[in-house]
Specification:
The chain is mainly β and 209 residues long. It is 11% helix and 37% strand. The strands form 2 sheets. Strands 1, 2, 5, 6, 7, 8 and 9 form a 7-stranded antiparallel beta sheet that branches. It is globular, with a radius of gyration of 21 Å.
Protein backbone atom coordinates (compact mmCIF):
# COMPACT_ATOMS: atom_id res chain seq x y z
CA UNK A 1 0.00 0.00 0.00
CA UNK A 2 2.63 2.52 1.04
CA UNK A 3 4.87 1.73 -1.94
CA UNK A 4 1.99 2.03 -4.43
CA UNK A 5 0.89 5.35 -3.00
CA UNK A 6 4.41 6.74 -3.29
CA UNK A 7 5.45 5.49 -6.73
CA UNK A 8 2.36 4.84 -8.85
CA UNK A 9 1.00 7.65 -11.05
CA UNK A 10 -2.64 8.60 -10.74
CA UNK A 11 -5.21 6.45 -12.53
CA UNK A 12 -7.40 8.22 -15.04
CA UNK A 13 -10.75 6.54 -14.37
CA UNK A 14 -11.70 7.58 -10.84
CA UNK A 15 -12.92 11.14 -11.09
CA UNK A 16 -15.89 13.38 -10.36
CA UNK A 17 -17.30 16.34 -12.28
CA UNK A 18 -19.30 19.08 -10.59
CA UNK A 19 -20.93 21.86 -12.67
CA UNK A 20 -21.51 25.03 -10.65
CA UNK A 21 -24.00 27.62 -11.96
CA UNK A 22 -23.93 31.14 -10.56
CA UNK A 23 -25.93 31.22 -7.33
CA UNK A 24 -28.17 34.09 -8.47
CA UNK A 25 -28.84 32.70 -11.93
CA UNK A 26 -32.14 31.17 -13.00
CA UNK A 27 -30.04 28.33 -14.39
CA UNK A 28 -29.22 27.32 -10.83
CA UNK A 29 -32.93 27.15 -10.01
CA UNK A 30 -33.61 25.18 -13.19
CA UNK A 31 -30.95 22.45 -13.03
CA UNK A 32 -28.66 23.25 -10.10
CA UNK A 33 -29.88 20.35 -7.95
CA UNK A 34 -29.37 17.83 -10.77
CA UNK A 35 -25.81 18.72 -11.74
CA UNK A 36 -23.91 17.08 -8.81
CA UNK A 37 -25.65 13.76 -9.59
CA UNK A 38 -24.43 13.49 -13.19
CA UNK A 39 -21.76 10.83 -13.65
CA UNK A 40 -19.47 11.28 -16.66
CA UNK A 41 -17.53 8.54 -18.43
CA UNK A 42 -15.02 10.74 -20.27
CA UNK A 43 -13.56 14.22 -19.77
CA UNK A 44 -11.23 15.26 -22.58
CA UNK A 45 -9.57 18.27 -24.18
CA UNK A 46 -7.88 20.11 -21.31
CA UNK A 47 -5.30 22.17 -23.22
CA UNK A 48 -3.81 25.64 -23.34
CA UNK A 49 -1.86 27.14 -26.24
CA UNK A 50 0.25 30.26 -25.76
CA UNK A 51 0.41 32.63 -28.70
CA UNK A 52 3.84 33.63 -29.99
CA UNK A 53 4.41 37.20 -31.21
CA UNK A 54 7.45 37.63 -33.42
CA UNK A 55 9.24 40.99 -33.32
CA UNK A 56 11.99 41.89 -35.76
CA UNK A 57 14.65 44.39 -34.75
CA UNK A 58 16.79 46.32 -37.21
CA UNK A 59 20.44 45.32 -37.01
CA UNK A 60 19.58 41.90 -35.54
CA UNK A 61 18.86 39.96 -38.72
CA UNK A 62 19.65 36.43 -37.57
CA UNK A 63 16.39 35.81 -35.74
CA UNK A 64 13.27 37.57 -34.47
CA UNK A 65 12.49 38.14 -30.83
CA UNK A 66 9.71 35.88 -29.63
CA UNK A 67 7.30 37.22 -27.05
CA UNK A 68 4.33 35.61 -25.39
CA UNK A 69 0.88 36.76 -26.45
CA UNK A 70 -2.56 35.62 -25.37
CA UNK A 71 -3.33 32.15 -24.06
CA UNK A 72 -6.04 30.22 -25.89
CA UNK A 73 -7.84 27.48 -23.96
CA UNK A 74 -9.23 24.62 -26.05
CA UNK A 75 -12.78 23.35 -25.55
CA UNK A 76 -13.40 20.53 -23.08
CA UNK A 77 -15.72 17.63 -23.92
CA UNK A 78 -17.87 15.83 -21.33
CA UNK A 79 -19.31 12.43 -22.27
CA UNK A 80 -21.94 10.38 -20.46
CA UNK A 81 -24.72 7.91 -21.09
CA UNK A 82 -28.27 9.06 -21.76
CA UNK A 83 -30.69 8.46 -18.88
CA UNK A 84 -34.45 8.96 -19.10
CA UNK A 85 -34.53 11.21 -16.03
CA UNK A 86 -31.37 13.28 -16.67
CA UNK A 87 -31.97 16.24 -18.98
CA UNK A 88 -29.80 18.84 -17.22
CA UNK A 89 -27.16 19.12 -19.95
CA UNK A 90 -29.79 19.67 -22.65
CA UNK A 91 -31.55 22.26 -20.50
CA UNK A 92 -28.25 24.08 -20.01
CA UNK A 93 -27.81 24.28 -23.78
CA UNK A 94 -31.39 25.54 -24.17
CA UNK A 95 -31.05 28.09 -21.38
CA UNK A 96 -28.30 29.99 -23.20
CA UNK A 97 -30.89 31.64 -25.44
CA UNK A 98 -33.27 32.68 -22.68
CA UNK A 99 -32.17 36.29 -23.16
CA UNK A 100 -33.82 36.22 -26.60
CA UNK A 101 -37.21 35.88 -24.87
CA UNK A 102 -36.40 38.63 -22.40
CA UNK A 103 -35.46 36.20 -19.64
CA UNK A 104 -39.05 35.29 -18.76
CA UNK A 105 -39.89 32.23 -16.73
CA UNK A 106 -42.82 29.87 -17.29
CA UNK A 107 -45.21 32.30 -15.63
CA UNK A 108 -44.10 35.17 -17.85
CA UNK A 109 -42.19 37.06 -15.17
CA UNK A 110 -38.48 37.69 -14.73
CA UNK A 111 -36.65 36.47 -11.64
CA UNK A 112 -32.90 36.01 -11.25
CA UNK A 113 -30.16 36.63 -13.78
CA UNK A 114 -29.75 34.98 -17.17
CA UNK A 115 -26.10 34.09 -16.60
CA UNK A 116 -25.62 30.86 -18.55
CA UNK A 117 -21.95 30.42 -17.60
CA UNK A 118 -20.86 27.84 -15.05
CA UNK A 119 -17.63 26.89 -13.37
CA UNK A 120 -16.74 23.21 -13.68
CA UNK A 121 -14.67 21.38 -11.05
CA UNK A 122 -13.03 18.05 -11.89
CA UNK A 123 -11.40 16.03 -9.13
CA UNK A 124 -9.21 12.93 -9.53
CA UNK A 125 -9.33 10.49 -6.63
CA UNK A 126 -7.12 7.76 -5.24
CA UNK A 127 -7.45 4.38 -6.86
CA UNK A 128 -9.34 2.05 -4.46
CA UNK A 129 -6.24 -0.15 -4.05
CA UNK A 130 -3.78 2.62 -3.22
CA UNK A 131 -6.35 4.46 -1.14
CA UNK A 132 -7.18 1.37 0.90
CA UNK A 133 -10.93 1.99 0.70
CA UNK A 134 -13.82 1.67 -1.73
CA UNK A 135 -17.27 3.24 -2.10
CA UNK A 136 -19.90 1.21 -0.30
CA UNK A 137 -23.21 0.27 -2.00
CA UNK A 138 -26.22 2.25 -0.91
CA UNK A 139 -24.38 5.54 -0.41
CA UNK A 140 -26.76 8.46 0.05
CA UNK A 141 -27.46 10.49 -3.11
CA UNK A 142 -26.81 13.62 -1.07
CA UNK A 143 -23.17 12.55 -0.76
CA UNK A 144 -21.93 11.83 -4.31
CA UNK A 145 -18.22 12.17 -3.46
CA UNK A 146 -16.32 9.01 -4.46
CA UNK A 147 -14.16 7.16 -1.93
CA UNK A 148 -10.48 7.98 -1.87
CA UNK A 149 -8.66 11.22 -1.22
CA UNK A 150 -8.55 13.90 -3.92
CA UNK A 151 -5.07 13.90 -5.43
CA UNK A 152 -5.61 16.31 -8.33
CA UNK A 153 -8.22 18.88 -9.16
CA UNK A 154 -8.83 21.50 -11.80
CA UNK A 155 -11.41 24.18 -12.24
CA UNK A 156 -12.69 25.53 -15.56
CA UNK A 157 -13.95 29.10 -15.45
CA UNK A 158 -16.97 30.63 -17.22
CA UNK A 159 -17.98 27.54 -19.18
CA UNK A 160 -20.86 27.45 -21.64
CA UNK A 161 -22.04 24.83 -24.16
CA UNK A 162 -20.41 25.09 -27.58
CA UNK A 163 -22.33 22.05 -28.79
CA UNK A 164 -24.59 19.28 -27.54
CA UNK A 165 -24.98 15.96 -29.32
CA UNK A 166 -26.42 12.46 -28.93
CA UNK A 167 -25.27 9.23 -30.50
CA UNK A 168 -27.01 7.55 -33.44
CA UNK A 169 -29.98 5.22 -33.08
CA UNK A 170 -29.60 1.82 -34.70
CA UNK A 171 -32.08 -1.06 -34.38
CA UNK A 172 -29.35 -3.50 -35.43
CA UNK A 173 -26.98 -2.49 -32.64
CA UNK A 174 -26.88 -3.04 -28.89
CA UNK A 175 -24.72 -0.08 -27.88
CA UNK A 176 -25.42 2.44 -25.14
CA UNK A 177 -26.87 5.80 -26.15
CA UNK A 178 -24.24 8.45 -25.46
CA UNK A 179 -24.50 12.22 -25.14
CA UNK A 180 -21.70 14.77 -25.38
CA UNK A 181 -21.46 18.40 -24.43
CA UNK A 182 -18.51 20.52 -25.59
CA UNK A 183 -17.69 23.46 -23.32
CA UNK A 184 -15.99 26.70 -24.20
CA UNK A 185 -14.26 28.28 -21.22
CA UNK A 186 -11.98 31.15 -20.28
CA UNK A 187 -9.16 29.34 -18.54
CA UNK A 188 -8.43 26.77 -15.87
CA UNK A 189 -6.45 26.36 -12.67
CA UNK A 190 -4.89 23.04 -11.63
CA UNK A 191 -4.02 22.04 -8.09
CA UNK A 192 -2.00 19.00 -7.05
CA UNK A 193 -1.86 17.37 -3.65
CA UNK A 194 1.03 18.79 -1.65
CA UNK A 195 2.48 15.32 -0.98
CA UNK A 196 1.80 11.64 -1.64
CA UNK A 197 -0.39 11.48 1.46
CA UNK A 198 -1.93 14.94 1.04
CA UNK A 199 -5.22 16.01 -0.44
CA UNK A 200 -6.41 18.87 -2.62
CA UNK A 201 -8.47 21.72 -1.23
CA UNK A 202 -10.27 23.30 -4.18
CA UNK A 203 -11.86 25.96 -2.00
CA UNK A 204 -8.67 28.00 -2.47
CA UNK A 205 -8.84 27.85 -6.28
CA UNK A 206 -10.08 31.13 -7.73
CA UNK A 207 -10.43 32.58 -11.20
CA UNK A 208 -7.04 33.25 -12.80
CA UNK A 209 -8.33 35.78 -15.30
Amino acid sequence: MARAAATDPLRNFKFQVIIQPESGSRLNDLIGASLPKLGFSVVSGLTVQNEMIAYREGGMNTHPHKMVGQSDYGPVTLTKGVFADQDALYKWQQFMHSWAQGGLDDEGSQSGSNDYRCDVVVTVHDHPVSAGSYAQPGRSESDPTPAGAIKLGYKLFNCWPASFSMGDLNAGDSSILIQQIVLNHEGFAVQWASSADGTVDLSSVSNIS
